[in-house]
Specification:
seven-stranded mixed beta sheet; alpha/beta; Rossmann fold
């Protein structure tokens, strides 16, 4: 006999009752993120890099809703995320109950970790706070551990919720102000700003303000193109990161 409770329980990998919603009085059956493929590109690349380091512990500073830590292999003994947003941490705990999340600042975190990440966080920090913030985050990294920092670049305009966007020189300056030596940093640029016209057309035709649809062959093509072209030049990259080890 089918266990009806367990049959229903298996549906709760995502809160599907929250997918349909109203927008300006119009009933919508889907929710979409226009830059979702870009987000997946850098998130899954970060996952690969972190897991290749084979850490036993990871601290994600400014973890938001916890997606990155949730993507990491559950064999990592300690995955810890901290953020000042209670709303974000509620989402993180709901979606990833096997990860440890706290509403706190990085200065209050105890212990040291094999990997410390700050993914798209520095752009939210006021100038005068950056030195102490970076210093506190870096202090949570054990010697020999990996520090991974990602920021949006000056390739596209600074968003209203951000204090600044970055080039490599400014990111280096911000990190060094907190005592981080960047001489041996691995610097990478991801997600090109400009794409071939045919890629843009497919993207726009499948997602715009009037409609969105998921046609599997087109989605497979878009993902393959964006993933295989995820690394790009300083002039084109929408995201920049520094990867370095603590001596």
């Amino acid at each position: 006999m089918v266990d009806k409770f367990e049959s229903q329980n298996r549906h709760y990998v995502f809160p599907y009752h929250h997918i349909p919603h109203f927008v300006n009085g119009v009933a919508r059956r889907t929710r979409s993120l226009g830059w979702g493929l870009e987000y997946l590109c850098y998130s899954y690349e970060l996952k690969k890099i972190i897991e290749s380091f084979r850490p036993n512990s990871v601290l994600d500073v400014g973890c938001g809703d916890g997606r990155l830590l949730g993507l990491l292999d559950s064999s990592i003994e300690l995955r810890k995320g901290v953020d000042l947003s209670e709303e974000a941490i509620r989402f993180a705990k709901a979606f990833h109950p096997d990860v440890h999340y706290e509403v706190t600042d990085v200065q209050s975190v105890e212990g040291q970790f094999d990997v410390v990440t700050m993914i798209e966080v520095l752009e939210h920090i006021p100038d005068e706070v950056i030195p102490s913030f970076v210093e506190a985050a870096f202090s949570k990294l054990r010697p020999g551990g990996m520090f991974l920092v990602s920021v949006p670049t000056v390739v596209f305009p600074t968003l209203g919720k951000h204090y600044r966007h970055y080039d490599a020189a400014l990111l280096r300056q911000n990190l060094e102000s907190g005592g981080v030596c960047c001489d041996d940093a691995d610097v990478r640029y991801l997600c090109p700003q400009r794409e071939p016209l045919y890629v843009k057309l497919i993207d726009k035709l499948s997602f715009n303000r009037l409609w969105s649809f998921e046609f599997a062959p087109l989605q497979k093509f878009l993902w393959k193109w964006k993933w295989t072209h995820r690394y790009t030049t300083p002039e084109e990259g929408r995201h920049l990161w520094f990867q370095l080890e603590k001596s």
